Backbone:
């Protein structure tokens, strides 16, 4: 499966793609994953858009003479250097330079994210690059190439591929409103879901608007109490900046903006989101109580191991005490390269396939109220994957964190009941799902194709 431009964006949801520079560049450079072909591949062109310009600079850098430190500082977002010093990044480039010449042999991407397969006489890597609003790099990743994937031609073949995956993964096909799934492959137990939790935040926002305590055009203030880490854009705004509720909600769903999400949670109140879990059909809301903001999750994941340990062993009252100790602002990423998945300690958000399917259906039902009027457009702004003309409406929310990858789609077509497709994947290490994103979302593409062909 080729990753579509729509896919590149949601895969960053809550995963902090900028961690790749520290965590994975060094790993990739330490031991080449596979030998390059003896026959050189055909060179591809890299576009001159914002991310392509930076990808071309990296290639020039690892193919020629090193640049000065000031050039690195100009090219990268300062947050990158919270993880590794400029001199360390220059050393990584020097290691890559030893394998030169590097040739780009495949390219796919959007204006702000791209994956370039680069080949040298010794080794081949996938180089992933992302840039922020100002064009500076906030993510750089070198890893094993994602090889071609053969789509499943039948349900049995798809189930076999899921069973053989080198990580825990499950997929469910649910007819909207039905009591039982149409198909379930893998386990149906509760799993970490990353930013898919934002479906319930959106539900709480609509409920508040319906109750008259909030309005779509109300202003939300960005400050240290809601400023979070990427993904998103609103974290770049200065303190005191404002966005409307609608703008924050749009960014929360379309680009999984974490700062916008936390601003919305503050606006409606944590208890309102917890109530939305119940109202929208989550069977075990206590697993997400107290309900984390993204900023709180990042503090426990990246900065304060003691808080994480207390969260893992504590009851609800103990967890509330943990949250009360988390300071304003964002955590340091100095130790990001060593971070391990937080979901085994309960540092994430959790749901079953059925919980997520009911959340999608509940949001579509909220469309009928005046408060829910923007929902159809909000949820379909970023479809996540390209499913083809068979499907007339696609609502999407994906999510990821360290060791977590999840996706959910509400699909409509002429002459058939709406369906919800969900895929939930998790791994005990930080890198497994990072290098298998294409396969995980490929399972969903295959499922949609098989349904369309029935």
Residues:
């Amino acid at each position: 499966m080729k990753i579509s431009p729509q896919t590149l964006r949601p895969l960053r949801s809550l995963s902090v793609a900028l961690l790749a520079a520290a965590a994975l560049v060094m790993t990739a450079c330490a031991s080449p994953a596979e030998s390059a072909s003896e026959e050189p591949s055909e060179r591809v062109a890299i576009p001159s858009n914002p991310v392509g310009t930076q990808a071309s600079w990296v290639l020039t850098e690892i193919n020629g003479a090193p640049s000065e430190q000031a050039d690195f500082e100009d090219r990268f977002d300062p947050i990158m250097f919270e993880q590794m010093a400029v001199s360390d990044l220059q050393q990584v480039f020097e290691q890559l330079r030893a394998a030169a010449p590097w040739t780009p042999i495949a390219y796919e991407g959007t204006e702000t994210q791209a994956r370039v397969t680069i080949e040298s006489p010794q080794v081949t890597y996938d180089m992933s690059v992302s840039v922020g609003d100002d064009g500076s790099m906030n993510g750089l990743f070198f890893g094993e190439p994602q090889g071609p994937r053969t789509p499943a031609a039948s349900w049995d073949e798809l189930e076999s591929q899921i069973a053989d995956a080198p990580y825990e993964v499950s997929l469910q096909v649910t007819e909207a409103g039905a009591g039982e799934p149409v198909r379930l492959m893998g386990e149906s137990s509760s799993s970490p879901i990353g930013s898919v939790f934002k479906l319930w935040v959106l539900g709480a926002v609509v409920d508040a608007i319906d109750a008259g305590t909030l309005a779509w055009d109300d202003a939300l203030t960005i400050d240290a109490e809601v400023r979070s880490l990427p993904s998103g854009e609103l974290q770049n705004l200065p303190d005191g900046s404002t966005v409307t509720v609608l703008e924050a909600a749009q960014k929360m769903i379309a680009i999984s903006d974490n700062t916008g999400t936390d601003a919305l949670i503050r606006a409606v109140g944590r208890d309102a989101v917890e109530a939305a879990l119940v109202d929208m059909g989550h069977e075990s809301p206590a697993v997400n109580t107290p309900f984390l903001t993204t900023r709180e999750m990042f503090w426990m994941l990246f900065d304060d191991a003691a808080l994480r340990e207390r969260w893992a062993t504590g009851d609800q009252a103990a967890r509330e005490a943990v949250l009360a100790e988390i300071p304003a602002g964002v955590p340091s990423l100095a130790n990001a390269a060593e971070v391990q998945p937080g979901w085994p300690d309960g540092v994430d958000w959790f749901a079953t396939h059925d919980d997520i399917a009911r959340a999608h259906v509940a949001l579509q039902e909220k469309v009928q109220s005046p408060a829910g009027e923007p929902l159809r457009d909000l949820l379909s702004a970023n479809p996540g994957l390209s499913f083809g003309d068979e499907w007339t409406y696609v609502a999407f929310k994906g999510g990821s964190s360290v060791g977590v990858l999840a996706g959910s789609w509400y699909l409509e077509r002429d002459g058939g009941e709406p369906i919800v497709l969900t895929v939930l994947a998790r791994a005990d290490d930080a890198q497994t799902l990072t290098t298998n994103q294409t396969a995980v979302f490929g399972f969903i593409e295959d499922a949609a194709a098989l349904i369309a062909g029935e």
The radius of gyration is 22 Å. Residues 1-38 have pLDDT under 50 and may be disordered. The longest strand covers residues 416-426.
